[in-house]
Amino acid sequence: MNNKPTYISRDGLEKLRRELEEMVSMRRPEIAQRIHDAKEHGDLSENAEYEDAKNEQAFVEGRIQTLEALIKNATIIDEHHSIEMVQIGSTVKVDGPDGKESFTIVGSTEARPTEGRISNESPVGRALLGRKKGEKITVRVPAGDISYTIVGIS
Fold this sequence. Notes:
With 154 residues, this protein is of the alpha/beta class. It has 2 domains: 6-76, Transcription elongation factor, GreA/GreB, N-terminal domain (Helix Hairpins, Orthogonal Bundle), CATH 1.10.287.180; 91-153, Roll (Chitinase A, domain 3), CATH 3.10.50.30. Helix content is 40%, strand content 25%. The chain contains 3 helices and 7 strands. The protein has helices at 10-39, 48-72, 123-128; strands spanning 6-8, 74-76, 91-96, 99-106, 117-119, 136-141, 144-153. Strands 5-4-3-7-6 form a 5-stranded mixed β-sheet. Strand 6 and strand 7 form a beta hairpin. The protein is elongated. The two termini are 35 Å apart.
């Protein structure tokens, strides 16, 4: 499995732990019971309930493995970060082609681009990391090159 660090906030890590707990303590036994009940109906080759439960079991087991790996490799984002230089956890105000925008640099598990939370692995996130207020950057994205000027870091 992948051993690269998962950059995540304390709240994000807690959400992952709660989801894992729910998957292990509730969903797994629930699906096992569904499989048991479906087996009792006889011929498994034509049993849609059994197939559906087995497919859901595969999804849940895969999600459990993913969550365990994310939690194992979690690196908590420092909440007391520098305002001199962009790093994971920083909120960066930029002036770009669409006017003023604000991005919070987060780990990939917490990225929500529509909410301004971009991954440190995204083209814009990578380009901003390590930069300082006043610097101009150009980011190559699928739609072409975009230029930003960093106007604030918090």
